[in-house]
Amino acid sequence: MISRSILFLSVLSGAIALPHAKPKADGINPYPDKPRVVFKPDGTFKVTVFSDLHFGENPWDWWGPEHDASSVKLMQTVLADEKPDYAVLNGDLITGENTFRENSTTIIDIIVGPLNDAKVPFSSTHGNHDNQPNITHLEETQREQLVAPLSYTRVAPNGVGGAGGPGNYWVPVYRNANGDFSKTGGFSTGQNPVGVPDWVDATVGEWIKSETTAMEAAWGPSEKRGALAFVHIPPHSIQALQATITPEKNPGLNGELLIIFLTACCTFIYIGHVLLPADLLGVGSIQASGDLSNGKDDRPFWDSLNTHVKNLHAVISGHDHGNEWCAREPEKDVIFCFDKHAGFVLFSVKVLKSLQKAS
């Protein structure tokens, strides 16, 4: 089973505020004690996304800590070059089945370090590898709140999100607003982990409706706002899109990864483009796909998101490491994008070993 986590950004029109200015009470702001996230005076707002960082892989091998250090350097470089107004960590922050239980939450300190240093506000969604025997979504969120002053990640109200999916929330961005929902999925903790459903729980659909109703009451008609949504695992409805992707209309990788490996003698070897099954949108790669009979279980969430979040400009997903294309989903008439992986040479050693066995 896989993990449920989604985030949407919604844009507010109205008074101009300075970046990170202390907010005035508006009756609905869920962060009364945090700086207000705002657009630049020129009306622009840049979001940088780091997806599938997979920190904590194989800490007992030389390559695990090396990959983590390289991912930190990547984040530092991107943040310095892009100078974003906001960042999103779009799921699978940690490979929870590979970490050590006794110190798994402290990996969050390493991940958010570049964001803290750059003083960039951010939110996290969570993925299937964030719900594993050695870590949970809730533990990651609690640690992030403790060590990152500009983290806007929070837990959902009681009863929203189902088992293992506490990370459903929205974040106002003035003159815009942004938010996050959470798919659960992954596995429970302990010696005998149990699979967690991989779709956004139906309770999230009702929560979206109630929250957007409250936004309209506080801020006026929803047509005055825009939104972006971030989700770690793509909704089931996206599966049909992959067959329609063309390089001309949808530039970017489509199920391919450029794999580079280090040999024992420390020289790089170019392997080439490898089509990975996890990047083909089928079983295990989309919401509610662990069991084909569950194919519509993410439907209440998907319908509610597209019905009640007006001016939804795009839905951005991670999970499928070799996908980075955008396409318009015809049923809901919404743009869907993959953001590819950001972690350093993710799963490269595992893929190399499987290729060596096959040859």
From TrEMBL:
Q: Which domain of life is it from?
A: Eukaryota
Q: Fetch the SUPFAM superfamilies from UniProt.
A: Metallo-dependent phosphatases
Record GO terms (molecular function): hydrolase activity, acting on ester bonds
InterPro entries, per the entry: Calcineurin-like_PHP, Metallo-depent_PP-like
Calcineurin-like phosphoesterase domain: which residues? 45-138
Specify whether Ribosomal protein is a keyword of the entry: no
Keywords, A to Z, come to: Signal
> Where does the signal sequence lie?
1-17
**GO CC term (a single one):** cytoplasm
**The keyword Signal is assigned to this record:** yes
Recorded protein name is Calcineurin-like phosphoesterase domain-containing protein
Originating organism: Panaeolus cyanescens
